[in-house]
C-alpha cells in the first residue's frame, strides 16, 4: 500500500526519488529525517532592492548541495525576521517547493539568473504537500518567515543581490535606462 501511495505522489510531482527513502551519500542519512545533522552554508547577506528604491538585507543560510536543498527549513520552529534560506540552482532551472516537515508558514521568493524576482508565494502553508512551482527558470529561491515579503513590499521585478545572481548586468541596464527616463520626465514638463 505504501508503494502505491508513493507511486501516486511521484506521479503528481509531490515527492521525488531523492526524498523517498534516499540517503545522503556523504553522511549516509536521510536529510529530511528530524534527527539528521545537515550543515548549511552562510549565513550570507542577501540584499534586496525594490522598484521603489527600498533596500533590505536578509542574512540567509545557503542550501546548495542536494542534501541541503532537500532539508531546507524542515523542522524549524521559527524563522526570525531578517533571516531566511537561499537555495542555489546550478544550472538555472524551473523549481518547485513543498512544505513537508516544515513547521512554520513561509514566504517563497523565486529569483531568475539575473537576480530578478519572478514570483512570490506568500504564506506557504506549513506541512502542505502541495507543489509550489516557480513557473519560470530560476537560479535561486529565497525562503523567509511568512509575512516578511509583504512587510518589505516585495514584488516581481525587484532585484536580489548575491554572488549567485548576475545582478551587475541588471544594475548596468537600469543605469543605462536612467538618462532616458530622466529625459522623458523633462520632456513631459
Automatic annotation (TrEMBL):
| Composition bias type Low complexity, residue spans | 20-31
Pfam families, sorted: DUF192
In residue numbers, the region (Disordered) covers 20-39
Q: Sorted alphabetically, which InterPro entries does this protein's record hold?
A: DUF192, Saro_0823-like_sf
**Signal sequence coordinates:** 1-20
Instruction: Tell me which domain of life the UniProt entry assigns to the organism this sequence originates from.
Output: Bacteria
The UniProt keywords, alphabetically, are:
Signal
Check the record and name the PANTHER family matching this protein.
Answer: UPF0127 PROTEIN MJ1496 (PTHR37953:SF1)
What name goes with this protein? Answer: Uncharacterized membrane protein (UPF0127 family)
| Species assigned in the record | Maricaulis maris
Amino acid at each position: 500500500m505504501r508503494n502505491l501511495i508513493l507511486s501516486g505522489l511521484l506521479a503528481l510531482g509531490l515527492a521525488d526519488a531523492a526524498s523517498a527513502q534516499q540517503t545522503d551519500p556523504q553522511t549516509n542519512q536521510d536529510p529530511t529525517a528530524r534527527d539528521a545533522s545537515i550543515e548549511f552554508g552562510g549565513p550570507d547577506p542577501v540584499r534586496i532592492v525594490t522598484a521603489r528604491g527600498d533596500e533590505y538585507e536578509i542574512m540567509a543560510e545557503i542550501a546548495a548541495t542536494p542534501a541541503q536543498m532537500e532539508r531546507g527549513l524542515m523542522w524549524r520552529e521559527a524563522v526570525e525576521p531578517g533571516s531566511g534560506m537561499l537555495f542555489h540552482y546550478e544550472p538555472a532551472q524551473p523549481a518547485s517547493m513543498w512544505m513537508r516537515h516544515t513547521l512554520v508558514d513561509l514566504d517563497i521568493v523565486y529569483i531568475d539568473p539575473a537576480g530578478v524576482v519572478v514570483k512570490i508565494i506568500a504564506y506557504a502553508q506549513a506541512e502542505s504537500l502541495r507543489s509550489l512551482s516557480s513557473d519560470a527558470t530560476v537560479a535561486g529561491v529565497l525562503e523567509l518567515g511568512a509575512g516578511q515579503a509583504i512587510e518589505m513590499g516585495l514584488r516581481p521585478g525587484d532585484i536580489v543581490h548575491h554572488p549567485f545572481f548576475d545582478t551587475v548586468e541588471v544594475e548596468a541596464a537600469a543605469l543605462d535606462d536612467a538618462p532616458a527616463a530622466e529625459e522623458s520626465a523633462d520632456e513631459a514638463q
